[in-house]
């Protein structure tokens, strides 16, 4: 356990992982024998990645997660300098494999994770609520392990309502749908869907959303995000890969375009974007600047190998262009 449960930002990773990244010098060929150029192993999981990026920036972050005291994952996490609060479980933290090709294309093979029984689930929930008491932000990210109901994020958002902290959620599939179904009960201050996740909530296609932005028309993305804001979400940060990102809240909408980069790995890019947004918010930045920081962080992460996360010196804010979207789209 960490020496203190107080932190400016509490990240929650219900399904942490050892992120193993192998880099290929060529394209991935199914059924072939391929030689790798490098291998890296990092303590990861989406919330852990957010905490790592914030810690690199000097932000006081605490990662809450389930793991046995003797799990090698915690040894790896300690080497990153990230403070953590671990809820003991019987199983081992999973290993996720990312295969990165020479053009940056990344294929991910994710294990399901260790099962949580009722006692571990209750302990994790209580740990999140306890650590949130003094936090400015609680960031809950990633998939849920076996044994956790899809409604867990929605349930915790409701528990945190009125506590004074802001809450961000970055998840997908069943947990994201359950979260959206519970917006009438309690909605987070921020969600960070990618194009596929936003498309699923809006009943459209990710390809259409990304293509529209690339063609200079962010209207479909803005409309999809605006619907979520109208349902109670404080802000929607929609990350669209190379097309950039759109931020929508009750005061307006903005589009950010990243600089051209040579992608090396997309592992952790979305988590870095979320860390950049939270870092900027804590610093008192207005919405356009928060979006600019988010995209700068995501772009920097995509330009790094393996699961490396960017430090402040690697962030180029001036290279990210942010424009306001016409108010009549809201």
Automatic annotation (TrEMBL):
From the record, what ranges are coiled-coil? none
GO terms for cellular component: cytosol
Would I find Lipoprotein among this entry's keywords?
Answer: no
Q: What SUPFAM superfamilies does UniProt report for this protein, alphabetically?
A: Ribokinase-like
Keywords of the record: ATP-binding, Kinase, Nucleotide-binding, Transferase
Q: Which domain of life is it from?
A: Bacteria
- List the GO molecular function terms: ATP binding; phosphofructokinase activity
InterPro entries (alphabetical)? Carboh/pur_kinase_PfkB_CS (IPR002173), PfkB_dom (IPR011611), Ribokinase-like (IPR029056), Tagatose/fructose_Pkinase (IPR017583)
Q: Which family does it belong to?
A: Belongs to the carbohydrate kinase PfkB family.
Q: What is this protein called?
A: 1-phosphofructokinase
Q: Which organism is it from?
A: Mycolicibacterium confluentis
């Amino acid at each position: 356990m960490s020496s203190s449960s107080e932190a400016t930002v509490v990240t929650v990773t219900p399904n942490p992982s050892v992120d193993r990244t192998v880099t290929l010098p060529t394209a991935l060929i199914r059924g072939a024998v391929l030689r790798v150029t490098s291998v890296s192993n990092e303590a990861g999981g989406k919330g852990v990645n957010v905490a790592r990026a914030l810690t690199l920036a000097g932000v006081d972050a605490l990662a809450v997660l389930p793991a046995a005291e003797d799990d090698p994952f915690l040894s790896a996490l300690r080497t990153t300098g990230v403070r953590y609060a671990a809820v003991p479980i019987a199983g081992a933290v999973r290993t996720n494999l990312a295969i990165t090709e020479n053009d940056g294309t990344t294929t991910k093979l994710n294990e399901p994770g260790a099962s949580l029984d009722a006692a571990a689930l209750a302990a994790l929930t209580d740990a999140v609520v306890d650590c949130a008491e003094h936090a400015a932000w609680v960031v809950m990210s990633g998939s849920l392990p076996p044994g956790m109901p899809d409604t867990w994020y929605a349930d915790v958002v409701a528990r945190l309502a009125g506590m004074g902290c802001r809450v961000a959620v970055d998840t997908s599939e069943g947990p994201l749908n359950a979260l959206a179904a519970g917006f009438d009960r309690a909605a987070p201050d921020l969600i960070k869907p990618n194009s596929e996740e936003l498309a699923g909530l809006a009943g459209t296609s990710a390809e259409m959303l990304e293509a529209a932005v690339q063609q200079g028309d962010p209207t479909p993305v803005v409309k999809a995000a605006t619907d979520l804001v109208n349902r109670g979400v404080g802000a929607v940060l929609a990350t669209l890969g190379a097309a950039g990102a759109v931020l929508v809240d009750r005061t307006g909408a903005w589009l950010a375009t990243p600089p051209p980069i040579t992608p090396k790995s997309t592992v952790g890019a979305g988590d870095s974007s979320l860390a950049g947004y939270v870092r900027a918010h804590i610093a008192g930045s207005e919405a356009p600047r928060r979006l600019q920081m988010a995209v700068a962080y995501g772009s920097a992460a995509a330009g790094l190998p393996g699961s490396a996360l960017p430090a402040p010196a690697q962030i180029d804010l001036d290279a990210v262009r942010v424009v306001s979207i016409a108010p009549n789209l809201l």
